[in-house]
């Protein structure tokens, strides 16, 4: 459509110029039966008619181009959103080992920056296709007017832009690679600043981290600057080519006075065509620069998505998700770990070495051991985040990996650093943003976790914001929110990974009393450094260098 409108416009411009400079052209219209109606108009009227037609054609073209550009931009934006959703979905469903091996800067940059580059590249490709179609159509029309003149113009363009790409394509690709690395490093550094601000300010290391981020920001800025500078070159080159082309054609025809009017008409057609084609050729080269510049980011983005999702089996996930609805009828009764062993990828050291033990409903299991003994690894294995190299883990006599989603509906994980979002207290308990209908369950969770008095003291009650990462809550309050979350989601097995180790003795005692009060409803596995934390445990195991000893009673552990 755009090509047809362009051809009509260029054709009318040629006719317009020809009629202005050669009034006798009107007499030749009688040779074309479909144009006989124009014979009734005089020279001046015909100029006005063609002029109005030109205006109408270019208005139609303007409206159509607006529509085309909107389509291209909106399509690219929608595809970017799809990629961003795919990235988040990949982060949520990738294997835990793959998550541990990944670079958080790459993950965040892929979401914030690389997806934007993907949109720009996709938009550039669509622009290339659109512009190329118009350029080809206009060239066909110009070729019909004068093939030799078109050939001269194409040779000029080909030599100049061929040389441009030969010289600069590799550099543009390098600039894109610099941008990708700089963007990842900048986000990585910014994330580290946000996570470690207290330590950084306490140690007076602001300058060190500022330099890390500023160096990366400079790399991003310089690579973008170089690309933008090189993208200004095509437009300026085309202006030079057009001037050379016009002067060259006039030079070739300067002695041909008999056909000077037809030469002017032909130049008018070519000038009109180049007025339309020149910005398209310039945009074509700029779009190609964007594709080359974004190649490294797109390659990295593709690898991240592939790494995140290659182990995720959608058919298996569907089967697991369908079984979640049956979880209420599959009450936790027993967990059995039998001869399990595990070592991390690319490591020969056994983090977990031939461990066996069982957990019965209502148990309060304690787990102790020095740092690096394998306690957190064992928790990750129990939660199904890491698959054992040998042995089995069975929940109610069923391997947890055969239906991992069902198994996780039974578990709640309470680490030392409780995960809290920047939202209300209710949102941090429910992890839901929509209106909650199950108010009785929320009330029960708040009461059992001993948060009732705290909620009553808040200005907006349960709707009060807890701040970024729960900054407005004390350590004990954070732990109680985690307990309330587990109760609200009706989890039967609570796994405490040194969750009270950062609390003072009095607060820890209160939190543990609240947990002990839940023993009739919950089964608990607690990792602890302080032996006193495990006073109410009915079984305690020692873990050292991946090997398990026990079970022991609290008195046996205390006496030893």
Characterization of this structure:
This protein has 560 residues and is of the alpha/beta class. It folds into two domains: 67-307, ABC transporter type 1, transmembrane domain (ABC transporter transmembrane region fold, Up-down Bundle), CATH 1.20.1560; 326-559, P-loop containing nucleotide triphosphate hydrolases (Rossmann fold, 3-Layer(aba) Sandwich), CATH 3.40.50.300. Helices cover 63% and strands 10% of the residues. The chain contains 17 helices and ten strands. It has helices spanning 2-21, 43-93, 96-101, 104-145, 147-195, 197-203, 206-253, 260-309, 314-324, 375-382, 404-408, 425-430, 439-448, 452-457, 475-488, 505-516, 554-559, and strands spanning 334-342, 352-360, 364-368, 390-395, 398-399, 411-415, 493-497, 523-527, 539-544, 547-552. A six-stranded mixed β-sheet has the order 6-7-8-3-9-10, sandwiched between helices. It has a four-stranded antiparallel β-sheet with strand order 2-1-4-5, covered by helices on one side. Helix 1 (2-21) packs parallel to helix 4 (104-145), helix 1 (2-21) runs antiparallel to helix 8 (260-309) and helix 2 (43-93) runs antiparallel to helix 4 (104-145). The termini are far apart.
